[in-house]
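Sequence only, no structure available. Ideas?
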Amino acid sequence: MVEIKRVLAPTDFSAHSEKAVRFACALAERFGAELHLVNVLSEIIPAGPDPLLMPVMPPQFYQENENRAKETLRSLIQPSWGKPTRLVTAVRWGSPVEAIVDYAQEQQIDMIVIATHGRTGLSHVLLGSVAERIVREASCPVLTIRDSHRVAPAGDGGA
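Reply:
I predicted one. Tokens follow.
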């Protein structure tokens, strides 16, 4: 028997990741599981000819971003999406893939539910896929929720 006690839904607060969070919320309710919501913030890396001349962001910049993300996570779930047994929210800094995979291991997550944009071709090669890397690297099952409103490639259905 499959037992799912903890479901992780990483979110970047986009409309597409909201669909995955909704699904994860309903899944957590169905299994009587906790729902973990995680947002990963990227550190700003100075770019330019001489990084030493770039301004350093003050500590309050990072604290304000983290506080804003925490508040958004706390208010993200709508009652109509389902009722997990418990809601856990977290904000992590760093690379999304590593932060999500590490969080899943630390919290003994049973399933990750994540949005995938379904990129193909050159955009997939250039941009890669956070969801695809999480599927490969996570130690638990990963359910991907695909974007159903994909834009047709150029040349499909033109006049």
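The first helix runs from residue 15 to 31.
Hope that gets you unstuck.
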